[in-house]
Amino acid sequence: xxxxxxxxxxxxxxxxxxxxxxxxxxxxxxxxxxxxxxxxxxxxxxxxxxxxxxxxxxxxxxxxxxxxxxxxxxxxxxxxxxxxxxxxxxxxxxxxxxxxxxxxxxxxxxxxxxxxxxxxxxxxxxxxxxxxxxxxxxxxxxxxxxxxxxxxxxxxxxxxxxxxxxxxxxxxxxxxxxxxxxxxxxxxxxxxxxxxxxxxxxxxxxxxxxxxxxxxxxxxxxxxxxxxxxxxxxxxxxxxxxxxxxxxxxxxxxxxxxxxxxxxxxxxxxxxxxxxxxxxxxxxx
Length: 285
Known about the structure:
It contains three helices and 33 strands. The protein is of the alpha/beta class.
């Protein structure tokens, strides 16, 4: 009798673990009702989007999404139509995987991440609050003096073994895809503009800002709060000291610093000369 009871209890516990939470069903119904209402309002004859609970984690996904059975979509996460989720991927609560986004094998996605218009490689880590694939900051003033938005229609491509810090933003491209190379590591609160191309094995520290259409080679290191001007090219194996500003192309490997950035020994001489000059002209009272 005790053995039968143990088997019955174990079976019930397993069924309970595989059962999607009630909130997942409510969220799926809410998304479906919203899509149905939108289709009705615009008079479209197309069938409404259908979201269903995912058994592994309790999130919801569109019926047209492709997801590996081993993937985990946690409660509150949403996977949209056409998205492809690879083997052993984990999608954290509150995350939104947009239409046609692809996520490679064994990638870990934190809480409240937004992925749209992008592809993510294998074995990546994306920390909480990151946003990848949104429109870049592109505007122009027309003949009538009105500010118009430039089309942002391309993608962001994230390589393999990339780590992206919390609340980092990577814009999608307008005239070329935004690309992050394999094994590049990006800290928290980094802004990467549209059309930026970053090579492999780069290290980008917190609060760095890389303006649109900049190009970085391989093994580039950017210290905290470094700024890269738009359309600037940085050669491979360049290291920029914290708070530096690159206003023009850097064509030779080495260490650079300053505002604007110059070779590090020149920057040090500038700093010493400025300090000596300031002391020389101090008026004693």
